[in-house]
Design goal:
One of its GO terms (molecular function) is DNA binding. The protein is mostly helical. Helix content is about 65%, strand content about 10%. It folds into two domains: about 90 residues, Rossmann fold, CATH 3.40.50.300; about 70 residues, Orthogonal Bundle (Helix Hairpins), CATH 1.10.287.
């Protein structure tokens, strides 16, 4: 009975595990166009960057904290929090943390990250093309006579497309840096 009617909630558990690229793209587009809420459990950072508008992070002390934005936004806020000055006793432990972080930056890319790097430029190009397409639509004066809902929808899609493109570029830079660091 519950599933026979219209729904405004989707629950997905590791949706990217066994999907081919075309199906994954269709799932992403469905989620981006979905007007309701989606609760997604995944280890796929790329997927989170594409579809997430907020992150529920399970903190080490057992708390669950909601962070607005996609996965890249969450990582930026996390880095800002960690970079903030800490009390003096914690500052003494910082050199040990720096020693353990250095090998991680030099460790290179794993198999899935190498595959991601191979295809990311095409995805960046597609995302930037989507931004240009939406900007062109918003530049057409006739779109404004169709009503404010259509304009608002286009603006929302443009903002999301810009965020996706920026997240892709950031991810590409990160992968390139790690790939180059491993070869040095």
């Amino acid at each position: 009975m519950l599933l026979s009617g219209a729904s405004n909630l989707v629950l997905l558990d590791e949706p990217t595990n066994d999907l081919d690229v075309a199906t994954l793209g269709a799932v992403e587009e469905m989620l981006l166009d979905f007007a309701g809420a989606a609760i997604i459990v995944t280890h796929d950072r790329w997927f989170l960057d594409r579809v997430a508008t907020s992150i529920l992070a399970f903190e080490g002390d057992g708390r669950v904290v909601r962070h607005h934005g996609n996965y890249s936004d969450y990582l930026e806020r996390l880095a800002e929090t960690e970079a903030a000055p800490e009390p003096q006793p914690a500052a003494r432990a910082a050199p040990a943390a720096a020693k353990t972080a250095a090998p991680a930056a030099k460790r290179g890319l794993n198999y899935s990250e190498k595959r991601e790097l191979e295809g990311i430029l095409g995805k960046i190009e597609a995302a930037e093309g989507e931004v240009q397409e939406l900007e062109a639509k918003l530049g057409d004066p006739t779109v404004y006579s169709a009503g404010k809902d259509q304009v608002a929808d286009l603006v929302r899609k443009l903002d999301a497309a810009r965020q996706r493109a920026a997240a892709l570029v950031t991810r590409w830079e990160e992968l390139e840096q790690r790939s180059a660091g491993a070869g040095a």
